[in-house]
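Blinded run. Sample ID left blank on purpose so nobody reads anything into the name before looking at the predicted structure. Input follows.
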Amino acid sequence: MPDQHLAVRRYARIAPLLIAFLALFAAFSLRNLEPLTFPTIFAEDGSWFEKIARDGPFAASLTVRPGFPVLGLTLLQSAAILAIDVFFSGDIFYLPAAYFVVSNAFLAGLALFMFCVLRRFLSAAASLGAVIATVLMPVGLDGNEIFGRILNLVFLFPPLTFLLLVDMSRSRRSWAALLPITAVLLVCLMTLPVALLVVVSWLALALTLQILPRKAITPTTSWMADRPYGWRLIGIVIVCVAIAAVLLPPDVLTDSGGAKAPIAFSAMIEFALARTVLYPFVAAFYDRLSDATTVALTALYAAVCIFALVRQIRLGGLSDKALLLVFAAMCLGCQVVALVIFRPGLTSLFDHYRSTFPDRYFYGANITSVLVLAIALDSLAASRARMLFGGAAALLVACGVIAHAKTIIELSRPATTWRDQGDIVQTTCAFARGALPTNPGANAAPVAIPIYPPAWSIVVSRDRYELFLRRHCAAT
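Blinded prediction complete.
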């Protein structure tokens, strides 16, 4: 009988999480169904395939991209490749669908983890609001390059790093709980260098808390509740940083990625503030902004956060919410600084508030911006200020969602599509018939099949190629 009650209690805990995960998976899936309805393989989702399939995700992560490793992405792609190998005998026709499932499962898991972490510190309304804003965040014309794809999930690893560190810090955790969190944290450090800046910020905050007199910290604070546990965490995180430092290439902090373009200093305010920090709240009227209004709105955003922090410290000292707000603001600052220093060439793509392209670079920073304001507003406690600013923020986000509804829930007709080149069957079968340049070499040599964008290709083994031809090109 006791065992039966225990099983019921476990089910009662797991069932709501599973339902929430499936609901979030469905919501993210509806944002872009094209990988299912018109299967195509896009950019690095295809060009990295051969190395990942041949060398495995870890070895491939160190070589597929110059500048810095992308372990998180190669692990996700490896999961998709494993799925088609197990269920479809390695048939690459199912690769877009496998990417679709893995991508949206990652996004759903991130959103669910966000709610679980925030709910330990914030109200249900603030936690749920942050998740809804994440799910429905406008991304302009880039939805088909983010949702259901793998490569642009890279920009979500900084907010994931933030959530992992918050979860580690919230109370005394067992080694069994810390080990998986630490493993994922190390993956984040090996995926995008901005995560390293976030971790260094956490270390600075954690060391400060260890040095401060205990009476300066609110007794009810669960953030690294006791000194021995705090030093243990700091040691674990330093080991993660050391491992990453050994594996990261020396030019990791100077790599400019795909943003090697002239710097347009005239667009720097729009780039660094409007698009990176304010966008979730001004999406409905972004094209009506100017540099002056951007600076004014950023000052208002900062003023609300500072007011919330001061009020929280005055009422509760260095409480959980106060520390969470400080760390979230530091995380957002890291992402803004990283974009300005390492991707300044993106400014050349901005056109005086007429366009938000390339949106994929800003999705992660926009999520962090929402988190900062959600924490700040919840820190105001039950007050008129919270009602006023919270209601205004929710209204602004809702207006942005409504204004961009067509590019948020795109279903099978995304704003950016590649139907002129054909889906994976049309492209591969045309390639096999010689309508596209063939791959020279011996019969056993790998085959480079064209994908999108033009001049990109996915290299597959001869066995995979011939399997595809037998199954999908016989009738053509």
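Unblinding after everyone has recorded impressions. The longest helix spans residues 2-30.
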